TrEMBL record:
This is TetR family transcriptional regulator. GO terms for molecular function: DNA binding. Residues 38-57 bind DNA. Residues 15-75 form the HTH tetR-type domain. It holds the Pfam family TetR_N. The keyword Ion transport does not apply. Keywords: DNA-binding, Transcription, Transcription regulation. PANTHER family: HTH-TYPE TRANSCRIPTIONAL REGULATOR YJDC, TRANSCRIPTIONAL REGULATORY PROTEIN. InterPro entries: Homeodomain-like_sf (IPR009057), HTH_TetR (IPR001647), Tet_transcr_reg_TetR-rel_C_sf (IPR036271).
Length: 208
């Protein structure tokens, strides 16, 4: 006779794919927030039983850290490609914001916004590690954008009173606004209007 323990699956299921599991966890966190998700929900969504979940990802905090890191790496890779393909500074900024808008507004309403800019802040007040991670991601994003723009368009920054870091800070702030508005229900067309107003505001600084 086979015992109940022997019937229970051990380890990861054969069809388990870590990238797919991380993507499903990302969607769940974006829908429900960090505190709104339970371990059993995560395990079910990712196609794992709870023992397999703990073996694969540790706990919810560790999984969320991996989810956020993977999310930011995807975004940064897209930003890099967009800036590289741009032939002017204003096009590079336009592409960077377009990439962000497509992520913020393309999801279903319950997943609109940004994992880092709208999901993490809601949990940062109660979870010190998430607050530290959020601070790190925000600073890293600004630094990466500034370095990429300065490298791609050195002539502009040699002649302008506006530094690459200051411009990246303005871009970051605009992205924060876009993410919050998307989470609040703004459409892609409405977010594009906000982006265009921002681009217009840069024209007096020679970015046009």
């Amino acid at each position: 006779m086979v015992s109940k323990d022997e019937k229970r699956p051990r380890g990861r299921p054969k069809q388990f794919d870590e990238k797919t599991a991380i993507r499903k966890a990302t969607d769940l966190f974006r829908r429900a927030g960090y505190d709104g998700v339970r371990i059993d929900q995560l395990a079910k969504e990712m196609g794992l039983n709870k023992p397999s979940f703990y073996r694969a990802f540790g706990d919810k905090e560790q999984l969320f850290a991996r989810v956020a890191e993977a999310y930011m790496q995807e975004v940064w890779t897209e930003w890099q490609k967009g800036i590289e393909r741009a032939t002017s500074l204003d096009e590079a900024i336009d592409r960077t914001l377009d990439i962000s808008i497509s992520r913020f507004a393309a999801a279903a309403p319950s997943r609109a916004g940004c994992l880092v800019l709208t999901t993490m802040p809601a949990a940062a007040g109660e979870h010190d590690q998430i607050q530290k991670s959020l601070h790190h991601f925000l600073n890293a994003a600004q630094t990466q954008i500034a370095e990429k723009l300065a490298t791609k368009f050195p002539d502009y920054f040699e002649q302008s009173a506006l530094s690459a870091d200051e411009l990246a800070s303005l871009i970051n702030s605009t992205m924060h606004s876009l993410a919050i508005q998307a989470r609040g229900g703004a459409t892609s067309a409405e977010l594009q209007k906000v982006k265009n107003i921002f681009l217009k505001s840069l024209q007096p600084m020679g970015i046009k």
